[in-house]
């Protein structure tokens, strides 16, 4: 049986996983290419996850950044929702909630 054949659960699971990953990467690139320049000082990259307190303190200690942060929250709820959906998708790919969608992928040379 061919690995990517429709009746091969292992191959089909791998195809679904790769397509989900590709969709997430494409959405991340679309979103990152459309950040207005005035918000670059309040939107952080993955370094935020290592020291969120440092970034929060930086914004909270500067009234200009706080104003920009408030403006961003008020005016860009749609894009914030898209980012939320993106990271929720990443989480769901990593931690599936539907156990019936989980497969143990194993290959053997024998």
Protein architecture, described:
With 110 residues, this protein is mostly helical. It has one domain (9-94). Helices cover 58% and strands 0% of the residues. Helix 1 (9-32) runs antiparallel to helix 4. The protein is elongated and about 65 Å long.
Provide tags for this entry.
4 helices, mainly alpha, 110 residues
Q: Short description, anyone?
A:
With 110 residues, the chain is mostly helical. It has helices at 9-32, 52-60, 63-75, 77-94.
Strands, helices and their partners?
Layout: H1 9-32, H2 52-60, H3 63-75, H4 77-94
Helix pairs in contact: 1-4
What is the H/E string?
HHHH
Poorly predicted runs are none
The helical percent reads 55-70%
Largest sheet: none
**Gyration radius over CA:** 20 Å
* N-end to C-end Cα span: 14 Å
Outline type: elongated
Oligomer classification = single chain
Average per-residue pLDDT, rounded, comes to 81
Structural class: mainly alpha
Give the strand tally: 0
Strand content: under 5%
């Amino acid at each position: 049986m061919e690995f990517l054949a429709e009746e091969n659960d292992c191959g089909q699971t791998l195809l679904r996983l790769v397509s989900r990953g590709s969709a997430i990467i494409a959405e991340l690139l679309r979103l990152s290419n459309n950040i207005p320049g005035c918000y670059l000082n309040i939107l952080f990259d993955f370094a935020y996850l290592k020291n969120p307190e440092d970034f929060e303190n930086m914004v909270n200690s500067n009234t200009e950044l706080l104003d920009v942060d408030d403006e961003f929250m008020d005016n860009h709820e749609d894009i914030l929702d898209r980012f939320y959906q993106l990271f929720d998708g990443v989480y769901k790919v990593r931690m599936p909630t539907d156990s019936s969608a989980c497969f143990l992928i194993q290959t053997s040379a024998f």
